[in-house]
Design goal:
Elements (H helix, E strand, L loop, with lengths): L2 H38 L6 E6 L10 H11 L14 H8 L5 E8 L5 E7 L4 E5 L4 E4 L5 E2 L10 E5 L6 E2 L2 E2 L2 H14 L8 E6 L5 E5 L5 E5 L4 H19 L4 E5 L7 E4 L1
Parallel strand pairs: 1-3, 4-7, 7-10, 12-13
Antiparallel strand pairs: 2-3, 4-5, 5-6, 8-9, 10-11, 11-12, 13-14
């Protein structure tokens, strides 16, 4: 067989292969469309809710909370309506309005099971103000109500806390912004996050820090020069308390500029 004959056969085979590939793709599409059409006329087999636990292995929201929200707010009964009429994005939107739900993903599998996968909110701090306000804030300073199912162990703020207020740009009010700045500084620091369990705002608007160990408090004062104040406090812990023991002191005062005072019992 000469070279020209081989080239002619190759040119004939190449379009034939393309035709076979196209036919295969067409058949696959027909199968998928048929399957979708078949499933769209069926109802939901099961509703399967998966909630990812917190780092403390807690469930702040339950399957019952999620299904109740769907029953009360979705216009169709998901157990009886045909799948073609179920809007998964609308269900996701409803679920994401449930307290302690950060993100929701809703989808069907090939067996007509409706899967609901939920990521929970991660509270950063709990506000327990003297005016009666009691709620959580996450790392975006979003207001989160208390959970009926679990109590996350997080930093607590007490005392003269300003009322929560927020718009599209974030927190409103300088005092509230200042408080959240102090909270972020503590929770993002490898030394202070495990050390401090409470921030109290006294009647003068000064910040008082309460450590997890010992009977002493730390008078921070304002949030001005916070990095300098934190450096002084850390130095006292490492150079003074490590030698003499923190149990002998009742107060660390860094509220005045350029000063750090330790008071004994």
């Amino acid at each position: 067989m000469n070279k020209e004959t081989k080239n002619i056969k190759y040119r004939l085979k190449k379009p034939f292969r393309y035709a076979l590939w196209g036919l295969g793709v067409l058949c696959l599409c027909m199968v998928l469309v048929s399957a979708m059409g078949s499933s769209s006329n069926k109802t939901v087999s099961n509703v399967r809710v998966e909630i990812i636990p917190t780092e403390e292995n807690q469930l702040l929201v339950t399957k019952k909370d999620v299904l109740s929200a769907i029953v009360n707010q979705y216009p169709h009964d998901i157990n009886t309506v045909v799948i073609s009429k179920i809007e998964v994005m609308e269900i996701e939107s409803i679920i994401e309005k449930v307290p302690f739900v950060s993100d929701a993903e809703v989808y069907f599998d090939a067996q007509q099971n409706l899967h609901i996968s939920i990521a929970q909110e991660k509270p950063l701090v709990r506000i327990m103000a003297e005016n009666g306000d009691n709620y959580y804030l996450n790392k975006e300073a979003k207001h989160i109500p208390l959970s009926n199912h679990a109590t996350p162990r997080v930093l607590v703020v007490t005392g003269n806390v300003p009322k929560y207020s927020r718009n599209e740009d974030g927190l409103r009010g300088e005092k509230l912004k200042e408080l959240f700045y102090v909270v972020e500084k503590i929770t993002n620091d490898d030394f202070y996050n495990p050390l401090i369990e409470q921030i109290n705002i006294n009647q003068e608007g000064q910040y008082e820090l309460v450590p997890k160990l010992g009977k002493h408090t730390i008078l921070l004062g304002s949030s001005e020069d916070l990095d300098i104040k934190f450096h002084k406090i850390k130095k006292i812990y490492k150079e003074v308390f490590s030698r003499k023991g923190w149990q002998h002191y009742s107060l660390i005062d860094v509220s005045f500029k350029g000063q750090a005072v330790c008071k004994k019992d």
